[in-house]
Amino acid sequence: MSKVAVLGAGSWGTAFSMVLADGGNDVAIWARREEVAASINERRENSDYLPGLELPRSVSATHDPERALAGADVVVLAVPSQSLRTNLPMFLPYLEPDAVLVSLMKGIELGTLERMSEVIREVADVDPGRIAVVSGPNLAKEIARREPAASVVACEDESVATMLQKRCHSPAFRPYTSVDVLGCELGGAYKNVVALCVGMAVGLGFGDNTTASLITRGLAETARLAMRLGANPLTLMGLAGLGDLVATCSSPLSRNRTFGEKLGHGMTVEEVYASTRQVAEGAKSCSSIRALAEKAGIDAPIAEHVDEVVAGRMTTAEMMEAFISRDPKAEIE
Ligand SMILES: NC(=O)c1ccc[n+]([C@@H]2O[C@H](COP(=O)([O-])OP(=O)(O)OC[C@H]3O[C@@H](n4cnc5c(N)ncnc54)[C@H](O)[C@@H]3O)[C@@H](O)[C@H]2O)c1
Ligand SMILES: O=P(O)(O)OC[C@H](O)CO
């Protein structure tokens, strides 16, 4: 069997390990906390992140980066986006030569405004043809329950995308290939911000017209930025764009939507952070995406207003009023 190292034992790192195991790979998960590695090895369960779901025998876990990476020709990164830069140097000495690095992360780095593949390229100093991204409508719990889903594997080198597609194609998981890494990453990061916004609307008590309006204008906003930066607009109409946007904005399983909903109910940002251990990437990426849009000179009202709410400078109700009272304009630019 071919070996894959999955660095990060949270919900998605663990669920994607199950996909890889079902696809015929031997999987070694690196867990930041030893007790999580022990739970996976001894009870065949990640009781912190995916309780009650049995992990295949070909999945093991370790707290030791060297053991996780030894012999792995594919290395999957699944830590929170804002921690990637500080985590990567711990893994680099143990990477096999020519290993392919795959990002599962959906965020934009604060400060540098870099996508995760850009952070990997910079810190690991590897060719973009060895960096790939997996992104799509893939809520971890549903994937771990083996409910059918599709996704996108993107890499500038199409042959690498095809190799990865084969490695993660399983009875319940259907990956499509793409060479549009930029479009997939922006789609994945932006939908988290839109899901925060939709959650806020739901928390305020608004219904389906409101959420559908926000989802649609969120897609317009995402496509505007992605196209300005050079993405293929059709990527945003695909699984890593519209697909993920719909799943995340519609599902009570989404941490980003839930985070927004709690704000809509009147909790403060600090209270919401204190209520969960899991990452809601949009709460940080709203600021970096807003800055990226400003730098690119495009209008991004959802990112801008969500950032204002998360920064505590605006209430969720004021955000909704601000959307409706914006200057009238044509729908299609
Ligand atoms: N959960 C999903 O459904 C899902 C699906 C697709 C993509 N993603 C993306 O995958 C990435 C990881 O998300 P997740 O759902 O696995 O998150 P999670 O919150 O479930 O788990 C994060 C993992 O990273 C570890 N961690 C936390 N802070 C860390 C740090 N500073 N350094 C190292 N490790 C740290 C945690 O211990 C945990 O193991 C995110 O970018 C997320 O957007 C998640
Ligand atoms: O739970 P969320 O909001 O991080 O979303 C999870 C996935 O990205 C959905 O595809």
UniProtKB/TrEMBL annotation:
Keywords: Cytoplasm, Lipid biosynthesis, Lipid metabolism, NAD, NADP, Nucleotide-binding, Oxidoreductase, Phospholipid biosynthesis, Phospholipid metabolism
PROSITE patterns in the cross-refs: NAD_G3PDH (PS00957)
Glycerol-3-phosphate dehydrogenase NAD-dependent N-terminal domain residues: 3-160
Entry's EC annotation: 1.1.1.94
Binding site for substrate: 106, 255-256
Domain Glycerol-3-phosphate dehydrogenase NAD-dependent C-terminal: 180-320
Residues reported in the UniProt entry to bind sn-glycerol 3-phosphate: 106, 136, 191, 244, 254-256
Top-level taxonomic group: Bacteria
Known catalytic reactions: sn-glycerol 3-phosphate + NAD(+) = dihydroxyacetone phosphate + NADH + H(+); sn-glycerol 3-phosphate + NADP(+) = dihydroxyacetone phosphate + NADPH + H(+)
Keyword ATP-binding annotated: no
Function description: Catalyzes the reduction of the glycolytic intermediate dihydroxyacetone phosphate (DHAP) to sn-glycerol 3-phosphate (G3P), the key precursor for phospholipid synthesis.
UniProt protein name: Glycerol-3-phosphate dehydrogenase [NAD(P)+]
Annotated gene: gpsA
